[in-house]
Amino acid sequence: MKTLFDTNIILDLLLDREPFSNDAALLLSKVEQFEIIGFICATTVTTIHYIATKALGSQAASRHIQSLLSLFVIAPVNRVVLENAVSAKFADFEDAVLHEAACHAGAKYIVTRNIGDFKKSKLPVFAPKEFVGVIESLKK
Q: What domains does the chain contain, in order, with CATH numbers?
């Protein structure tokens, strides 16, 4: 299951944002166990580093980035992705970039807490709890 995780899911776990961190932890454990091929957008890495540095300090931020880089496939952001994002007509450009990076990298799903921001998505978009249900139903 090639799945791109929105930045908010990673931050939920990293910053232990309740009540969202439990679902984020469960999904990321599925990535660690190779039940999901996890993708994050290249812009997620820079955003996470910035926020983690402010919240946790630069050394902790760097450790978290190393963990993310070892765990996830990075969906690149290049000219094609940016041009497609502009054309995608999403309400939020950052979400459009994430979506187009997911498509370009071959992801099949997007997991986010902001499903409404992805109304124009070409890919199926799930909330974390909903995606946990999808994974469990596929096991049966």
A: 2-135 (3.40.50.1010)
